[in-house]
Amino acid sequence: MTTDTVLDLKPEDVNVDQATSPESTPTTSQNGDTNSTEKTVAKRTAARKKAADVHVYDTIVVGAGISGIAAAYKLTQAGYDDFIVLERAARVGGAWRENTYPGCGCDVPSSLYSFSFAPSSKWSHLFARQPEILDYLESVVEQFNLGEKIQFNNGLEKARWDEEKKQWVLDTAQGQYLAKTVIFSTGPLTEPQTPKIKGIETFKGEMFHSAKWNHDYDLTGKRIAVIGTGASAIQFIPQIQPLAKELYVFQRTAPWVLPKPDMQLGEKAKSWVEKYPKIQEKWRGAVATTLNVINVGLRNPKLLEPANFLSRQLLKKQVKDPELREKLTPNFLIGCKRILFANNYYPALQADNTTVIAHGLVEIDGNTVIGANGERHEVDVIIWGTGFDVSHPPIGSKIANAKGEILSEVWKNSSPEAYLGASMQDVPNAFLVLGPNILVYDSFIGIAEAQIDYILSGLLKMKELQFSRFEIKKDVLQKHNEKVQKQLKSTVFNTGGCVSYYLDENGKNFAAWPWSLKKLKEELVDLDLKHYDIVL
Ligand SMILES: Cc1cc2nc3c(=O)[nH]c(=O)nc-3n(C[C@H](O)[C@H](O)[C@H](O)COP(=O)(O)OP(=O)(O)OC[C@H]3O[C@@H](n4cnc5c(N)ncnc54)[C@H](O)[C@@H]3O)c2cc1C
Fold first, then answer.
1. Banded model confidence at residue 27, pLDDT cuts 50, 70, 90
2. What is the pLDDT of residue 51?
3. What is the dihedral of CA 454, 451, 127, 496, to 10 degrees?
4. Is residue 448 lining ligand 1, measured as CB closer than 6 Å?
5. pLDDT bucket at 8, cuts 50 / 70 / 90
6. Best mutation site among 158, 186, 389, 438 for ligand 1 pocket (most ligand atoms within 8 Å of CB)
7. Could you give the CA distance from residue 137 to residue 135 in angstroms, rounded to a whole number?
8. Which pTM value belongs to this model?
9. What's the whole-number mean pLDDT along residues 512-531?
10. Could you tell me which residues belong to the region Disordered (predicted)?
11. What is the third-level CATH fold of 200-263+270-384?
C-alpha cells in the first residue's frame, strides 16, 4: 500500500477519473517469482486441466454449497457476470453432499430452509431429508443455468493478495486464477471433529464420523458405540438402533430436545402448494416469526420457559425409567446449545439394546471403549457423532492476508473476527459467508442470502465507482466486535452453563449474533462505504 491513496470517502466523493484499472495488466510476469513452486506444482498436477487462467475475474466465489449457489444466482441476477465458482468436489451441495448418514435432514422447516428465490412444492415432509435437499440444490443450479459458472474438482489451495496489482491470486487444483474480489463461501460446518482419545490407535474395529458415513459397513447385529449426542447423532441413533445388537451411547451433555412438528406431505398437499404459492409464502413467514420468538428468548432466557416445559413433558412422556430420565435431563439452560427436535430419539434410547453412558468416552483399549465413569464395553464399531471444528474454519489455512500472514496462524490464539460475519482485517476485497458472529436461530440459508446481498452491494459500488481496493476500517471492526461481545454477555449462549460450539477454547463467543434476525438483515441491506478504507 506504499504509494496508494487511502481515503475515508463517501460514494459521492469518489472521483472515478482517478481510478486505476487492475484489469489492464493481466501479466505472465506474476509467474516469475513463483517459478520453482510452479514447477513442483506442475509435476504434481501433470494431469490437471491448465496451468493458469490469466483473465482477471471481477469475482471468484469459492465453494458451491448453499452459499456459493446463492452467490452465483444473485451475482447473475444483478448482471455481475464476470465471475466463476470454484468447487473442490465433483457436485454442488456442500454439507448436504457430505452428510449422508441415515436420518439426515434439516431441523428448520423446508419452507424456510430453501432459497427465497426458489420455493419448492416438492418437499415430501415439512422437514426435508438429505437426499431431497441435495436434489433441490442441484435443481436450482439447473433451473438458473448456474452450472456453467461452476468449476468442479477445482479446490482452492492458496489465495494471496497481490498488493501491487490489487488482485487476488488463487492457486487451485487446476491452475492459477486472478480476481479483483473473492467470496469465500466454504462453509461453517465442514471439518469433522474427532476427539483425540487415549488408545484410539489400538482399536481394531470399524470407525467413522457421521459426516463420512461408511455405507459399505453393515451395522446389522453389531455392537455399536456412538460418541456424542448432538444434532447429527440424534438423527441417526433412531435409525441404527433397530439394527444393532448392542448400542452404547456416550453422552457428555444431555441435549434439550423438543418434539419435531414434522409430517409427510402427500400429493394433494404438494399440488395445493404448487397451485397456491401464497400458502408456502405465509407458512415461511409463520415459521420465521416462530424462530424469531426463540431468538428473543435466547436474549431473555425467562421467555424460553414454555420451550423448557415442552421439552420436559416430552422426556416425561417418552422415558418411563426414572434413572434414564435423570440421565437425559439437561443440566444447563435451554438455548445455550442448539435446541434439537426429534420424536424418535428418546424411544431409541429406551430400547432394550441401548445403554446410555452419561459420560464422555475417555479411553479405547483394543475393542473396549471406556467412559469417564470407568464403564467398559466391548464394541465392533465406533461412530463419531462429535460434530465439526467450527472455531477454526479450515479455509483459514489457505488464505494469506495483505501482510502475507496465513489466517489460521492469525486465528491461532483467538477465533476469527469479521464485520457482520463477512469483512476481515487485512483481507481487502474479500468476504466470508457465514463467518464469525453471524448465527441467529434461523435458517442458515436466510442468513447467507442476506450476507450475499450485502457483499453484492459492495461489489456493485466497486464497479460503479471504480475503486481498486476496499478493506474494513480497523476501528469499525473493533467497535463492532466490542458491541457484539458486550451484548453476548447476557445471552443464554454465554450464561446458560454449557460448553457449546459457540464458544472457542478461550471461552469467547465467536459464533452467535446477539440481536434479532431483523436487525441482522437491516444491517446487511447495504454495504456502507463509510465503514471501509478505500483505495482508488
Ligand atoms: C448434518 C447437517 C445438518 C444441518 N441442518 C441445518 C438445518 O436444518 N438448518 C440450517 O439452517 N442449517 C443446517 N446446517 C448448517 C449448514 O452447514 C448450512 O445450512 C449450509 O449448508 C451452509 O452452506 P454453505 O454453502 O455456507 O457451506 P457448505 O454447505 O459447507 O458448502 C461449502 C462448500 O465449499 C466447498 N469448499 C470448501 N473448501 C473449499 C476449497 N478450498 N476450495 C473449493 N471449494 C471448497 C465444499 O466442498 C462445499 O461444497 C446443517 C449442517 C449439517 C452438517
1. very low
2. 57
3. -130
4. yes
5. very low
6. 186
7. 6
8. 0.90
9. 93
10. 1-44
11. FAD/NAD(P)-binding domain (3.50.50)
Q: Which residue has the cell 454465554?
A: 494
CA–CA separation, 441 vs 42, rounded Å?
A: 46
- Residue to probe by mutation, ligand 1, list 444, 449, 455, most atoms within 8 Å of CB: 444
Question: Which atom in ligand 1 lies closest to the alpha carbon of residue 187?
Answer: 27
Ligand 1 atom with the shortest distance to the CA of 190: 30
CA of 464 relative to ligand 1 center, distance in Å: 32
Please give the CATH superfamily to which domain 56-191+391-535 belongs: FAD/NAD(P)-binding domain (3.50.50.60)
Domains 56-191+391-535 and 200-263+270-384 share a fold: yes
Q: Which of 74, 85, 86, 87 gets mutated to test ligand 1 (max ligand atoms within 8 A of its CB)? A: 87
Which of ligand 1's atoms lies nearest the C-alpha of 157? 41
Output the CA 183–ligand 1 centroid distance in Å: 15
The confidence band for 50, taking pLDDT boundaries of 50, 70 and 90, is: low
Distance 7 CA to ligand 1 centre (A): 36
Whether the predicted pLDDT of 41 surpasses 50? no
What does the alpha-carbon distance between residue 505 and residue 152 come to, in Å, rounded to a whole number? 35
Q: If you take atom 4 of ligand 1, which residue's CA is the nearest one? A: 106
Provide φ and ψ at 339, rounded to 5°: -75, 135
Nine-digit cell string for 379: 464394541
- Identify the CA nearest to 432 among candidates 398, 405, 403, 462: 398
| 93 CA: nearest ligand 1 atom | 49
Tens-place pLDDT, residues 175-226 = 999 999 999 999 998 889 999 999 999 999 999 999 999 999 999 999 999 9
Q: Per-residue confidence at 32, pLDDT binned at 50, 70, 90?
A: very low
CA–CA distance, 260 with 311 (Å, rounded to integer) = 11
Q: Where are the chain's structural domains?
A: 56-191+391-535, 200-263+270-384
